[in-house]
Amino acid sequence: AGPTDNVDVSDTTVLEVDTSSNNVVIGGFTGGVQGQILYIVKTNTANFIQLEHNETVAYQNIYLTSGSDERVVGFGGWTLYCNGSNWFSLSNPTGAADAG
């Protein structure tokens, strides 16, 4: 459920997140490579998924367009780009969203 600061996204394009039993909080990733695009998709309307902006304990930090944590409470998600060291949001969260 999180916070999880080292989700391994090696060879991953779509990260489906099932929130049916818990909220899910992600603060960072491992295994991302230069040029990788990652789609994070919330596949259940229960609970929420939250990405943490610039979580300093993460292996590969996430930098979100809002400059702060972002949360999706319905279906939806994000598109992220990796430069080999960190992840950058290419979109605001889709779906029903609120501040984290």
Report on the architecture of this protein.
The strands form two sheets. The protein has a seven-stranded mixed beta sheet with strand order 1-4-7-10-9-5-2, with no helix packed on it. The chain is built from no helices and eleven strands. It is globular. It has 100 residues and is an all-beta fold. The model has no long low-confidence stretch (mean pLDDT 90).
**Count of DSSP-assigned helices:** 0
Mean pLDDT: 90
- Radius of gyration over alpha carbons? 12 Å
Q: Indicate the proportion of strand residues.
A: 35-45%
Helix/strand order, N-terminal first: EEEEEEEEEEE
The quaternary state of the protein chains shown equals single chain
Shape: globular
Largest sheet: 7 strands, mixed
| Relative helix content | under 10%
Structural class: mainly beta
The total of beta strands comes to 11
Q: Spans of 5+ residues with little confidence (pLDDT < 50)?
A: none
Cross-sheet strand order for the largest sheet? 1-4-7-10-9-5-2
* Termini Cα gap: 15 Å
